[in-house]
């Protein structure tokens, strides 16, 4: 590997030896590159001299960086300058993957669109994430998570029927685009082993948002009525995804298979409900959903959420407590999962973050370095490209590169 590894020693991982250039902003592009970093790739984040846009939107932006730029190196580079573009081309020529989700037309204006890059480097895998795809009339529109939620139908089915449409409570489309983009890159790298050729991989937030609703869309495309907001519950099954109040909070409950409904009735001591004409089949329970919800409240409101979880789980009935973030952190299951890891900054400071949601064999989850400061690795990356100290100093004096020298780094995500 021609580039220097970060200071953290890593065990052998699937993408050892793979080099990734991250030209992304915010979540989708940087998130895809972060997935590849945690699988062992060396990821170099090319940032403007002022840094990723996420560095300029306050606390939430800092959280984006902590979540999606850990495990990377950062080089601050002015790509509007010919000298800066020359450095970027040298980096790209020594890499396997390029990831970008810049606003429509921006990367092409800089000369680094997929056609230009792969014409020079056909073995490269190029991932481009846009807002609305590159074929339709909206190809030039900027796209954020919330716009994709709105235009994919997701908001139309989220929320209460008599209230405004609601977004999902987290940027789920951005996050899913990151993982699906990384998945496609892995497929392209595997294909390259057979063909010797890279690939241009394109996805969009709109396409990802549609894909996340595959079951609902399949139902609608198969002739079902237009889906609408119903709040909790599912339109064709009951009780399914029902939110039920408990003594100290809420649970969600699903027991719509007749066997599971009968078991629920026995567990709560209401066996007569099994043969009640209103509830004797799934179709009848859907038809009498309001009465069913009244019964569920009667059966469970005297129990605490944890008592409900223990009782119903013990009897193989699907149930979950609705937990706050602080309660999630206290969950024995979350603690046992190993999902919470510490990222370590160059100055020795640490922060807790979330690992990838899967493991490979018995390998421990990666505990990557923290997100770097803007240009924290500029000198090291340039030196690995063959630039002398004098040349690096000249580039910095001319405003082509930025970032502090390695022995004078700034705070991790600032």
Automatic annotation (TrEMBL):
Pfam families cross-referenced by the UniProt entry: CoA_transf_3
GO molecular function annotation: CoA-transferase activity
Keywords: Transferase
Signal sequence coordinates: none
UniProt-recorded name of the protein: Crotonobetainyl-CoA:carnitine CoA-transferase CaiB-like acyl-CoA transferase
Organism from which the protein derives: Pseudacidovorax intermedius
């Amino acid at each position: 590997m021609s580039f220097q590894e970060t200071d953290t020693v890593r065990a052998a991982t699937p993408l050892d030896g793979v080099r990734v250039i991250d030209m992304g902003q915010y979540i989708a592009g940087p998130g895809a590159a972060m997935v590849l970093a945690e699988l062992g790739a060396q990821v170099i984040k090319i940032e403007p001299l002022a840094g990723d846009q996420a560095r300029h939107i306050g606390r939430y932006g800092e959280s984006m960086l902590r979540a999606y730029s850990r495990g990377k190196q950062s080089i601050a580079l002015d790509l509007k300058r010919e000298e800066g573009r020359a450095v970027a081309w040298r980096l790209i020529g020594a890499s396997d993957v390029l990831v970008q989700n810049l606003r429509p037309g921006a990367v092409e204006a800089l000369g680094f669109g997929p056609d230009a890059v792969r014409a020079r480097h056909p073995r490269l895998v190029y991932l481009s994430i846009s807002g609305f795809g590159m074929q339709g009339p909206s190809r030039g529109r900027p796209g954020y998570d919330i716009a994709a939620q709105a235009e994919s139908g997701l908001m139309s089915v989220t929320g209460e029927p008599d209230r405004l449409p609601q977004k999902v409570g987290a940027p789920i489309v951005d996050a899913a685009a990151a993982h699906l983009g990384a998945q496609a890159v892995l497929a392209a790298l595997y294909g390259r082993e057979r063909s010797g050729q890279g690939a241009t991989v394109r996805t969009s937030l709109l396409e990802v948002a549609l894909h996340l609703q595959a079951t609902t869309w399949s139902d609608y495309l198969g002739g079902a009525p237009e889906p609408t907001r119903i709040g909790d519950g599912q339109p064709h099954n009951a009780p399914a995804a029902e939110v039920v109040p408990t003594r100290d909070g809420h649970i969600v409950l699903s027991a719509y298979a007749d066997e599971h409904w009968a078991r629920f009735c026995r567990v709560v001591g209401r066996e007569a409900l099994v043969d009640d004409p209103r509830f004797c089949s799934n179709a009848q329970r859907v038809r009498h959903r309001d009465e069913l919800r009244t019964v569920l409240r009667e059966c469970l409101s005297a129990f605490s959420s944890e008592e409900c979880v223990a009782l119903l789980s013990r009897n193989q009935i699907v149930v979950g407590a609705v937990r706050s973030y602080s309660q999630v952190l206290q969950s024995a299951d979350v603690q046992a999962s190993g999902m919470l890891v510490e990222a370590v900054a160059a100055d020795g400071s640490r922060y807790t973050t979330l690992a990838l949601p899967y493991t490979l064999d018995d390998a421990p989850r990666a505990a990557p370095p923290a997100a770097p400061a803007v240009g924290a690795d500029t000198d090291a990356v340039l030196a690995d490209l063959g630039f002398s100290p004098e040349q690096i100093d000249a580039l910095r004096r001319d405003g082509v590169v930025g970032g502090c020298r390695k022995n004078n780094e700034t705070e991790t995500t600032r």
